[in-house]
Amino acid sequence: MKRLLADAMLDNAALKVVTPVAKRQAVRHIQEALALSERHACALVGVARRVARYVFPPGRMMLPCASVCGNWRASGAALDTAA
After folding, report:
1. Is 1 exposed, middle or buried (0-12, 13-18, 19+ CB in 10 A)?
2. I need a labelling partner for 25 at 20 to 30 A (CA). Which of 47, 66, 71, 81 fits?
3. C-alpha–C-alpha distance, residues 47 and 40, integer Å
């Protein structure tokens, strides 16, 4: 009984993916490996079908926050502008 529970917990841990990109990859892998439909693969991964179908628009680039925010502090404290 304990072995069955441990195996089930390992299976659940293997299916935990965090980012939408990883979820898309998991859906595609399950579709190809098990020959399942997109609907069933999304249900197994636990992701909405619209997330699995999403494609970044061409030319869109993800920028790191530091390059966008500049010198702003995360704490919300006022910047020392007198220098």
Report:
1. exposed
2. 66
3. 10
Structure tokens at 60: 């869109």
Residues 37 and 25: their CA atoms lie apart, in Å, by: 14
Radius of gyration of the chain (CA): 21
Q: Which of 58, 47, 56, 38 is nearest to 18 (CA)?
A: 47
Residue-level pLDDT, tens digit, the chain, 83 residues: 667 666 666 666 555 667 888 889 999 999 999 999 999 999 988 899 999 998 878 776 665 555 556 555 555 555 555 55
Cα separation of 76 and 4, whole Å?
A: 50
